[in-house]
Amino acid sequence: MGFTSVSLLKDRCVGCTTCVQRCPTEAIRVRGGRAHILTDYCIDCGMCMRVCKHGAKVSETASLDEILSSDYKLKVALPPPSMYSQFEENRNINRLLTALKMIGFDEVYGVARGAEVITRETIRFIEENPPMNGPWISSACPAVVRLIATRFPSLIDNILPLISPMETAARMARAYFTSQGYKDEEIGIFFITPCPAKTTEVLYPRMVEKSAVTNTVSMQEVYFKIRPFIHKMEDGEIQTLQLESVEGVSWAHIGGESQGLHMPDCLAVDGIDNVIKVLDDLENGKIEQIDFLEANACTGGCLGGPLQIENPFNAYTRMKKVLRRNEHPSFREEVLHADYSGISVKAEKELEEAPAFKLSADFQEALRMMQRRDELFDRLPHLDCGACGAPNCYAFAQDVVRGKLVEEDCIIMLKDTLRYQKREAEQDNQE
Prior knowledge:
This protein is an alpha/beta fold. The chain has helices at 18-22, 47-51, 64-68, 93-102, 111-128, 142-151, 165-179, 196-203, 219-232, 246-249, 256-261, 272-283, 312-325, 333-336, 363-379, 393-401, 411-430, and strands spanning 6-8, 28-31, 34-37, 57-59, 74-78, 107-108, 136-137, 187-193, 215-218, 266-270, 292-296.
C-alpha cells in the first residue's frame, strides 16, 4: 500500500471527475459520488489540487502553530529557494530569512546551500561515471522519482544516486547546530514545502533510511504569516543569515540545476505531462546524446509548486530580480564555512520498483487478466466519458479485471444489458 500526503475533503467534493480526467497517473476514481485516491498510483504531483474548483484536495502538512509550540529546543526553518520569489516587495534574502525568525523560528538554513553541494557532487559523480545507458536523471524532484519507480521502472538505474538538496541542507543544519552544543533530538528541522511530494518524501523517504527533516509546513501558511513582518521590518533589524549564492538559488526555476553543471548535453523539462512524454521517448530510445536530464513535475520548476502563492511565470520574473539583487550578498560566514566533511550525500537505499500498474504478482495470472482486460476494452464504447468514475475506458477495463468494478458500471454496457434483457423478456412473453 502506498502513501500520499494529498487528502480529500469529502464535504467539498462533488464528484465532478475533473481531477479524474487530469490526473497524469490515473490515480483517482469517483465512487459513491466522491473522489478516491489510489495511493499506489499517486505520485503527489499536486495536479488534482490545481484543477479542483471546489478546494477538495489538500496537502497534509504540520501546522505552523503546532511547529512553533513544539518541545524542540531549537526550531530550524528550511526555506526552499523558490520561496524568495513570492514577495514582490522584497528581493533581499536576508530580510525574508529574518522574518522567519521573527514569526518564531529559532534558526534558518537555506535549502539552496544544499543545492550548491549537490551541484558539485553531481559534476564529480558524472565525471567518474559517464552515462552509458542513457542520461543520468536528477533525483531532486520526488514526484518524478516516484513516477519513474511506478511507471518507468526500466529507467530506475538512470536516477542519480544522490540525495536531494532538501535532505542535504537538513543534514548540514543538524551538523552545524549539534556542533554548537545542541543534542540531535533537541533540534527540529522544518521544511517549508511548495508541494505535497516533498512531504511524502520526508515521511516515507525512498532514497534515505530516515529523513533529517522533522516535518514540513505549507508555503502558503508561512507566506501569510511572514508577509506583515517583511513589510514593517526596518533595515537595521535585518540579520545576516544568508548561506546561498545565486548558483543555489537558481535551482528554484527549471533549468537552474542544469545550468550549474556547465555541461553541454543537458535537457531540462517541466510540467508532469511533458515529463511523462520525455520519459516515454527516453525509454523508447527516441532521445539520444543527452548526458543529464533535469525533470520537474511542476511547470516552471519548484516556482510552480501547488503550495506556492504566485503563478510560476510571475514568480520567475521576480526570481530574476532576486538573482540580480544577490550577486554580491552578505553571508553568514561562520555557518557557511563550518566543517561539513562528515556529511554523505549518497543515496542510502536502492530505489525499488513500485509496480502499481501490474495486474498480478503471478505472471500467468497477470497474462490471463491482461487478456480479459483487452477483450473487455474491445467491447467498450471508447468514449472515455468518465461516468463510471474511471478516467477512461481502458482504466475501467483494468478496474473490472481487478475486481473493483463490474461491467454494468459502464452506462453504455448497462444499457446494452437492459436492452438484451428486455428483448429476452419480450420473446418469452410471445412464446
